[in-house]
Amino acid sequence: MQQERLSLIFLLVILCWRGVKAVDLTACEGETAQLTCDLTSQVIACDSDIASLHCDQGHIKVLSANYGRTNSATCSGGKPANQISNVQCTQDSSLNVLASRCDGRKDCSIPAISTVFGDPCVGTYKYLNVSYICIPSSAIIQKRTTCEGDTVSINCNNRFIKVLSANYGRTNSATCSTGKPSNQISNVQCTQSSSLSVLANRCDGIHACSVYASSTVFGDPCSYIFKYLNVSYICHPNNQFIKVSAANFGRTNGTTCSTGKPADQISNVQCSQSSSLSVLNTQCDGLKDCSVPASSTVFGDPCLGTYKYLNVSYTCGPDPSSLT
Asked: From CA 73, how far away is CA 87, in angstroms rounded?
């Protein structure tokens, strides 16, 4: 027992030393618990709400943003059909607005309103969608520019790649222009929106990668223009993996997941399923992402007739094998 306690203390010291943060989440019965160790966080704020971005450690780097509407479900409660039917509403300046206000800070709050972003679709009820990462304070953003037909090589040695931004196209007439006729470098509004996802799919989470800067890889966003690939990335110290530390499928209080439920379904607050942790350990430990239904078919039913919920605590840390 003493040896087990020392091993646990040692593990906690290692995790704290490496900047690992514990995450708690609750899913009501019938919902799905989603555990993730992706470095990227997403925030959605309905029109007139406040979007809050927060980094306990490191600083904010906004990856993408849109103030508008791209689906009819988000922020749609109680809204008439004509206010949520336009799902092609985007504001191109959203990213610049967020980046100028939030990049490099630990905390950032911004109202999701048209006076801040402008109104890309009058009469439509909009929302702000933001994706950002928390960059460790010690991380340096690195950049690579590769002309069309060449190969970009990214090497983080013993660290792990995280691509922040990428574009295959042309946004100025000077880069990769030597010996090119003017008609091949004149279009400086040439961007390929899928560039980031292409790079991320090939490079994120590994030590080194090489990608050919070619239309066969990225598609051709502007025919007859000589293009180049611009990439920014960081090398972060740990590839993050899930480790579930506590879990219970049952009910230990009368308030969680209680809305609309009759008293007899939430009165038993001593309902616990002892196998919950082992179920989560088996399904999630060592993965970057994990989804588990909060259901009696998965965990068994510890208290018939009681409306239950799944309560999970987990950490995101390095591959356990790297601690040995």
From this structure: 10
Asked if pLDDT for residue 171 goes beyond 50, the answer is yes
Domains and CATH numbers, the chain: 19-37+240-323 (2.60.120.740), 40-135 (2.60.120.740), 142-236 (2.60.120.740)
Tokens of 157: 């040695």
List phi, psi (to 5°) of 23: -125, 135
Is the pTM for the entire model greater than 0.70? no
* C-alpha count within 13 angstroms, C-beta hemisphere, residue 129: 13
Distance CA 286, CA 240 (A): 9
Q: 16 falls in which pLDDT band (50, 70, 90)?
A: very low
DSSP type of residue 126 = P
What number is the average pLDDT over the span 102-124? Answer: 92
Distance CA 204, CA 161 (A): 5
Give the whole-number percent of the chain exceeding pLDDT 70: 85
Task: Convert the pLDDT of each residue in 262-292 to its tens digit.
Answer: 999 999 999 999 999 999 899 888 887 788 8
SS3 content of the chain, % helix, strand, coil (to 5): 20, 35, 45
- For 54, the enclosing helix (H) or strand (E) is strand 50-54
CA angle 5, 10, 13 (to 5 degrees): 125
Q: In which order are the strands placed within the sheet that holds 142-147? A: 142-147, 228-236, 160-169
How far from chain centre, in Å, is Cα 226?
Answer: 33
In single-letter form, the type of residue at position 164 comes to L
